[in-house]
Design goal:
single chain; 2 domains; FAD/NAD(P)-binding domain; 335 residues; 29% strand; five-stranded parallel beta sheet; four-stranded mixed beta sheet; alpha/beta
């Protein structure tokens, strides 16, 4: 049995940073994650993807951010239960929560922080009849290592941030990049959309809008995609790889059965401390929802910071919380 002050479900960036903020208040943390290593989506899906909106980092690779977060929380010695899924939650007579994983590991804590990102997720696949025939044979739904596409011809489909960001990044890696999108307007960040337009105007990428991939052809490995354009009809494009980036389909999994208020696969919280309808259970990061919610890592960092201030009163009801600046006290004073 594992006992801790705050049990964090999800070891992604928001969960990891929460360990730091809790450590400053001398609260112990333990994290549960279904993945075999910390980092969440940053580690599992796009460790080599650059991130541009982390304060103090004009650009940082996702995997590097995770490494830095792990180094930051090292003084507080958090525990990890990795490769296991939080299944059952039960309120105990002493007020603590008992959380049991799918492998029977039992955890006890007075506070639970759900930082599960998008929950359990799977990529949204385009409706192509034979797409399964080319999975891992030229069709990939997630880009983990951009070097895999070095000197290759790549067709990316999508209009969100991932499609735009990877188009920009792979332009310097791949031999040829083609971005296909159904509309002329993009859903991603305006700066990224503008950069893509600039690359297309300079002839550095192929940009095909008002179009979508409707067919795949090859002999054992993808060799060609068929792109249906709104006015030009079918365009046949030779390529080594097709990467449809249409986002992830989130599923809360067992969390949906815990009695929490759920709205469109997200947990409703208040913005005072990001608590849920169950006292002692909080939700931070992409898994929560509230008016004005922005699904950004930096917003999740803020939510975790505010949450631990409230959690302190539950963990230490008889102690007075003293807020201190780390620039004055230093982290070492909390070890």
């Amino acid at each position: 049995m594992i006992e801790t002050d705050i049990l964090i479900i999800g070891a992604g960036p928001c969960g990891l940073f929460t360990v730091f903020e809790a450590g400053l208040l001398k609260m112990r943390c333990h994290l549960i994650d279904t993945l075999p290593q910390p980092g969440g989506q940053l580690t599992e899906i796009y460790p080599k993807k650059p991130i541009y909106d982390i304060p103090g980092y004009p650009e940082v690779l996702a995997g590097e951010l995770v490494d830095n977060l792990m180094k930051q929380i090292e003084p507080f010695k958090p525990g990890f239960t990795l490769g296991e899924r939080a299944e059952i939650i039960e309120k105990q007579e002493d007020g603590r929560f008992k959380v049991t994983t799918n492998r029977g590991t039992i955890h006890l804590a007075p506070v639970i922080a759900i930082a599960g990102g998008l929950g359990c997720f799977e990529p949204r696949k385009p409706p192509l009849a034979n797409i399964a025939d080319y999975e891992d044979k030229g069709v990939e739904y997630i880009i983990k290592d951009p070097e895999f596409y070095r000197n290759k011809s790549v067709v990316i489909a999508g209009g969100g941030d991932s499609a735009l960001d990877w188009t920009i990044f792979l332009e310097e890696v791949a031999d040829e990049i083609t971005l296909v999108h159904r509309r002329t307007q993009f859903r991603g960040a305006p700066d990224s959309a503008e950069k893509v337009q600039e690359l297309a105007a300079a002839g550095k990428i192929n940009l095909i809008t008002e179009a979508q991939v409707t067919g795949l052809e090859g002999n054992g490995h993808l060799e060609e995609v068929i792109i249906k354009h709104k006015t030009e009809g079918d365009i046949r494009k030779k390529t080594n790889h097709f990467v449809p980036l249409f986002g992830l389909s989130p599923k809360l999994g067992p969390i949906a059965e815990w009695g929490l208020n759920i709205n469109k696969n997200a947990i409703e919280v208040n913005t005072d401390d990001y608590g849920t309808n169950i006292p002692g259970i909080y939700a931070i990061g992409d898994i929560n929802t509230y008016k004005g919610k922005l699904k950004l890592i930096l917003c999740g960092f803020h939510e975790g910071t505010m949450m631990v201030q409230s959690a302190f009163n539950l963990v230490y009801p008889d102690k007075k919380r003293s807020f201190k600046y780390t620039t004055v006290t230093g982290v070492s004073g909390f070890e």
